[in-house]
Amino acid sequence: MQNGNGHLVVMVGAGPAALYATGKLAQKGHTVVVLNRDIKPGGLAEYGIYLSKHKMKEGLRKQFRQILANPRVIYFGNVQVGQGGAVRLSDLQDLKPSAIVVGAGAQGTKSLGVPGDEGPSVYHAKDLVYHYNLLPPFSEKDFPMGKSVAVIGIGNVMADIANYLVTIRKVPEVIAVARRGPVERKYDDREMRPIAWHIDKEAIKAELERVRSRLEPVGQDMDVQYKELTKDCHVEPKAGRGPTRLSFRFLSSPKRIIRDETGRMVGMEVEENTLVERKGSLSAKGLGETTVLPVDTVVFAVGDVVDLDLGLAAIKGGWGYTTNPNPDSQDPDSATYQAFDPEAEQLIDGVFVIGWSRNASDGVVGKAKLDGEKGASIINRYLAGRPGISHREIYERIGAVYHHLQEKSVPVVHKGLWRILEQVEWEEAGKRGLEEFKFGTNAEMLQNIGERVKKRS
Predict the structure, then answer these.
(1) Domain count across the chain
(2) Is residue 115 domain-shared with residue 83, that is, in the same domain?
(3) Which of helix, strand or coil describes residue 169?
(4) Exposed site from 12, 149, 220, 230, fewest CB < 10 Å?
(5) pTM of the model
(6) Which of the residues in the chain have pLDDT under 70?
């Protein structure tokens, strides 16, 4: 433990950006209290990476265990921060920590707002990813799938959703719908390779012919794109050949969900697009012509937005919380990490945002790590110029947080209890002959923690 006066930092969230930032803050001698909505730490590293990537997940967990093992890091899991949560952001500010860092990711869902998208059989990719990765309460919800599923978007999240639909749900048809062309696809070929065998090559050829006249004038060679899109189709899937036919629909923007008189989805109307150059890049432009795709399920994989109920103002579109619009000319980067109140037109002193809370859906774990650590360096500079807090006062304030949660009857999971849960799940995986096992509900996690603690006492 540190001697003399130091600083108390409250970290909201325990995903990659938050935990890597926590590590850098603790290294500087600061005490960091991590408040996490979920029982387990890890965020998207735990619940966003595709479920078969066990080695990648375990490698990240090992790093997170090392960060959380630091005695200067206090972990409180199962604690929702927000206007309707167990603790509000204003409650944390009342405790007067040296700094509050919001690294809670982008927990809101982005919607295109097309008519009919609020009804059944329309899902958001993040909810589905959380479901198959067993994050409560999403793990407890039902996501019925039809026979023909349109996935809106063409990035790595689309590839993960398609993988799940092909290998786990085994739906008959999956169509990836993109507003631009094949050259603008954002997924890594490695993410599509496990399911490339299911790509319908004849359908791809026909689709590229359909859009050839609109894409070749902007330099996109459809013959080259056919080879790129189908180059891994010969790869035998490890999960075995399923019934799914996987195809693409380019230059198409959703306009409305079509339902019959009972409310059942019978199709999705899309507007035909072309590509035009704007500010050095190609953008989709609607042509006013529409087509109906005969699908019965839609998954939007178009990115996420921040949680609007957290207690901070968000920029337009929800792509991040509002940060300092008036950067210091000598340190302009730091402005993008400092929270700003647009109504009061002033900085929120001591409050910072990092990771997807700063820039939603930007990059994956590696980028989150860099962003968290860069944010931590800015916060460390801020703290270096502030008067410290006595060791006794730091722990009195931590005690106040814990007391507040006890009054709210929140079953807080500290890091010792989380490690017990890890041990129980490892043992269960071994018994079942699985690489990994997770309890799918908070009640099961808390019950198993309690039973193991009782046995040890």
Answers:
(1) 2
(2) no
(3) helix
(4) 230
(5) 0.93
(6) 1-5, 329
